[in-house]
Task: inverse folding
């Protein structure tokens, strides 16, 4: 083992066998699936803080067993299979919220380990298509009634040529970790920190207008060879805090932020939706953002949509999971709309959240960064900005360090000076950088907003192959004014399995029917929920607190019930809503009203969120806002923000497109101001 001790391996083996016990037939057990080896590899990739956290969790499950067994020296590793399973169930069904959350975390790690084995993927059907990156021909054959093997054989001839050339070229002006021979010192007009949707669009726009631009990105460049269809690997390598970031406070809510060239655009579903009228009206009325009108922003939306190749998902790559969503909406009186995405040549692989291995998604490594380089801009990857250079009330650039990708090892110093600095390090990264540098206004890092989201699974009596088809191909906007959006979704078999029976033989048997599962999600406005981001000196991770208010819980509950109703409308025989304290499996639409109306609280509702905003809110009044309406940070000169932290509340839409428009507009203002 690279990381796990012999004792830790034993603990994990027992946990793995409790989750996936041995049976005469069917899927492999935890040992045969080599779950321990996978988790060892995952720990090797994880950063030290997260590695310690995971090891602590394994120990807790082992040593905590003493209290359950009523013997102070008892350990889980010595328990028989039945007792081990009973012990884990006591966590799952615990009235204590944090214990249930820990069980979910453990289960996720075990599922990742289990799906790390090719035999599991093959038997479950995840790799049924001859090329999982281009599965549409296979799906068409299945729809004609062919079995998996025959469908795969016939589809093989149709697998399209790979587009490996569609990744960021190694060009002059692009610096990667291997290029650094010593410290880096540079000067420019405009320094942009962070290459996500905010930073990349802004940097390109400024370069277009003749500014000398440097873009600094903490993460590495990812090309096809670095992208895998493994959720555990992707999260550990391409996300901040090894993908284990969660909020604390009222709810423990997982939230992911990318650490890679292109930021969130590389690992998101590429959904492009303009902000809602209500959101823009609230920004004008409640925050004095008078020029945030539909009319004033329209030219910026038009420009970025055209340039980023935004278009509706091609019906040929929707696949059954998305098509059934459309049909389900129709049957319950709702409207489904094909999603608009920034892509060119989607193969319906369902892999958007792993980074598009087909090079079809137009993430910023493919659009934004290459054009910036062509205009003479320079892009420094694997450099983390640590501190603003703050002198006499003015920001003159940043200092930081060169970081080896995936290990966090510091190998050099970096200093960038600039006429002006723009922070586009994301909702967590930007306020943390300000706070670390001594900017202490209370508005910095306050007002964290996000879209709490939830996932519902439903089982049909025929294959759906939820892992194939555009990752998110259709959505329903009918309830957006009430703060609810419904979507079809795919991410990763290990992660999406969290709605199925918790563990044991029941889970294994359910996994054999995984190909029949529909997976759909909903997110809500978060209008009733707020949190904060704080830098804590000496603590390796940001403190992110969040509370979800009752109105948002109600929205999530209503959305869950509606998704359940939709699933039954297209023939689901079972629906898994995942709400604690309510039935875990529904068998008929008659059970939906009880689900919709049951009294529940925020701890009962399963939640996550990847849409975050608000921690550097812009507004006309200095009090209550971190930035002014142009994105300038109050109280300091030559420092701006251009990421979703600027949005004072939910844009009423998936945030990327709104961010592009704001960045596009800001590029014009800044180039004029610093002409
Ligand atoms: C899994 C997932 C799916 C999503 N799907 C969609 C979708 O389909 N549609 C949509 O509209 N939105 C989606 N989102 C949200 C969307 O991706 C984000 O809102 C968007 O990426 C935010 O853009 P940003 O520029 O504000 O920040 P980010 O994209 O987070 O970019 C910030 C960048 O700054 C870098 N950085 C941070 N700190 C530093 C530092 N100190 N020094 C140097 N660099 C630093 C980071 O590594 C990162 O690359 C999704 C998000 C996730 C995680
Ligand atoms: S579904 Fe996403 S990852 Fe797959 S080909 Fe289409 S854009 Fe790329």
Result:
């Amino acid at each position: 083992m690279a990381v796990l001790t012999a004792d830790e391996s034993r603990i994990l083996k027992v946990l793995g066998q409790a989750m996936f016990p041995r049976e005469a037939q069917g899927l492999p057990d935890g040992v045969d699936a080599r779950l321990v080896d996978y988790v060892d590899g995952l720990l090797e990739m994880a950063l030290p803080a997260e590695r310690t956290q995971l090891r602590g969790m394994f120990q807790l499950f082992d040593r905590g067993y003493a209290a359950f067994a009523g013997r102070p020296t008892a350990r889980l590793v010595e328990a028989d299979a039945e007792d081990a399973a009973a012990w884990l169930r006591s966590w799952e069904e615990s009235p204590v919220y944090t214990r249930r959350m820990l069980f979910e975390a453990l289960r996720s790690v075990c599922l990742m380990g289990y799906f790390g084995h090719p035999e599991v993927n093959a038997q479950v059907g995840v790799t049924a298509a001859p090329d999982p990156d281009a599965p549409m021909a296979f799906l068409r054959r299945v729809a004609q009634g062919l079995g998996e093997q025959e469908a795969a054989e016939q589809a093989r001839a149709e697998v399209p040529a790979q587009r490996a050339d569609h990744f960021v070229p190694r060009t002059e002006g692009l610096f990667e970790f291997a290029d650094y021979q010593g410290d880096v010192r540079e000067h420019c007009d405009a320094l942009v920190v962070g290459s996500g949707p905010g930073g990349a669009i802004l940097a390109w726009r400024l370069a277009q207008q003749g500014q000398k631009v440097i873009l600094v990105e903490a993460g590495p460049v990812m090309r096809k060879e670095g992208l895998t269809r493994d959720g555990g690997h992707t999260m550990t390598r391409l996300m901040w805090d090894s993908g284990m970031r969660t909020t604390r406070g009222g709810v423990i809510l997982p939230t992911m932020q990318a650490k890679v060239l292109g930021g969130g655009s590389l690992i998101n579903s590429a959904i492009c939706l303009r902000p809602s009228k209500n959101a823009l009206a609230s920004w004008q009325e409640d925050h004095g953002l008078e020029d945030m009108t539909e009319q004033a922003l329209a030219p910026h939306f038009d420009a970025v949509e055209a340039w980023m190749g935004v278009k509706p998902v091609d019906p040929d790559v929707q696949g059954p999971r998305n098509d059934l969503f459309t049909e389900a909406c129709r049957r319950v009186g709702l409207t489904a709309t094909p999603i608009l995405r920034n892509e060119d040549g989607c193969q319906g692989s369902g892999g958007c959240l792993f980074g598009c291995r087909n090079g079809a998604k137009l993430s910023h490594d493919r659009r934004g960064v290459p054009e910036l380089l062509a205009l003479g801009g320079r892009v420094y990857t694997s450099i983390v900005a640590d501190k603003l250079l703050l002198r006499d009330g003015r920001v003159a650039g940043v200092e930081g360090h060169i970081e080896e990708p995936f290990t966090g090892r510091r190998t050099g110093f970096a200093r960038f000076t600039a006429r002006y600095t723009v922070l586009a390090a994301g909702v967590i990264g930007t306020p943390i950088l300000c706070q670390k540098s001594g900017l202490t206004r209370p508005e910095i890092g306050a007002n964290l907003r996000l879209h709490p989201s939830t996932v519902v699974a439903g089982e049909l009596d025929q294959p759906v192959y939820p892992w194939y088809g555009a990752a998110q191909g259709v959505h329903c906007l009918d309830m957006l004014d009430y703060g609810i959006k419904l979507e079809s979704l795919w991410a990763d078999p290990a992660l999406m399995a969290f709605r199925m029976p918790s563990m044991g033989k029941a889970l294994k048997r359910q996994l054999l029917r995984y190909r029949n599962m529909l997976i759909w999600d909903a997110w809500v406005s978060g209008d009733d929920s707020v949190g904060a981001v704080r830098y804590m000196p000496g603590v390796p991770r940001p403190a992110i607190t969040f509370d979800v208010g009752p109105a948002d819980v109600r929205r999530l509950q209503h959305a869950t019930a509606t998704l359940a109703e939709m699933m039954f409308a297209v023939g689901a025989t079972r629906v898994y809503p995942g709400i604690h304290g309510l039935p875990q499996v529904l068998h008929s639409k008659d059970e939906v009203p009880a689900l919709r109306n049951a009294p529940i609280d925020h701890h009962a509702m399963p939640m996550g969120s990847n849409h975050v905003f608000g921690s550097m809110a812009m507004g006309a009044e200095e009090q209550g806002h971190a930035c002014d309406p142009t994105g300038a940070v109050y109280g300091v000169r030559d420092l701006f923000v251009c990421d979703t932290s600027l949005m004072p509340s939910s844009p009423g839409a998936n945030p990327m497109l709104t961010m592009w428009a704001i960045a596009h507009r800001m590029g014009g203002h800044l180039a004029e101001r610093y002409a």
The radius of gyration is 24 Å. The chain is about 35% helix and 15% strand.
